[in-house]
Amino acid sequence: MLREIIISRKKINGLTRRWFSNEIFDVFVFFNHEDELVQLQLCYDKNNMERVNSCSRDLGYNHARIDTGRNISGRSGSPVFFDCSNCDIDRVKKTFIDSSLDLDDILFDQIYRKLIGFKLGIEF
Fold first, then answer.
1. Counting beta carbons within 10 angstroms of the beta carbon of residue 92, is it exposed (0 to 12), middle (13 to 18) or buried (19 or more)?
2. C-alpha distance from residue 24 to each of 15, 38, 57, 107 (Å)
3. CA–CA gap between residue 123 and residue 56 (Å, rounded)
4. Per-residue pLDDT at 93
5. Distance of CA 96 to the CA centre of its chain
């Protein structure tokens, strides 16, 4: 189940960031002062070629592969996103549904609508 990492709740550039995590996902949601979702980063397959579905009002939708920045010695660097066109969004949606039973209904609905928008190409 996705659990909120409460200690990570922060204000960044006037937006409130919340982070939810489990063994499959890291979900970052950003809300403006009116509690509207204005940006989402849904990272998935954390243990196997991690990727991210991102969307924001300013930049629209994007899908990328994440290079964690870890080198062969195990040292961590900065993660880097590389454009990636192949996204099995139906699998991501199903896995997200299965992982999000503990999210409140409003937050679940906001995130799920963005995943549907990603599939259908609906503007943010």
1. buried
2. 25, 23, 26, 18
3. 9
4. 94
5. 10
Residues of the chain with pLDDT under 70: 68-85, 124
Residue 62 backbone class (left: φ over 0; alpha: ψ -120 to 50; beta: rest): beta
Which helix or strand (DSSP H or E) is residue 92 part of? helix 89-99
Tally of residues, the chain: 124
Residue 114, Cα to own-chain centre: how many angstroms? Answer: 10
- What pLDDT shows up at residue 86? 74
Cα separation, 18 vs 79, in Å, equals 19
pLDDT score of 97: 96
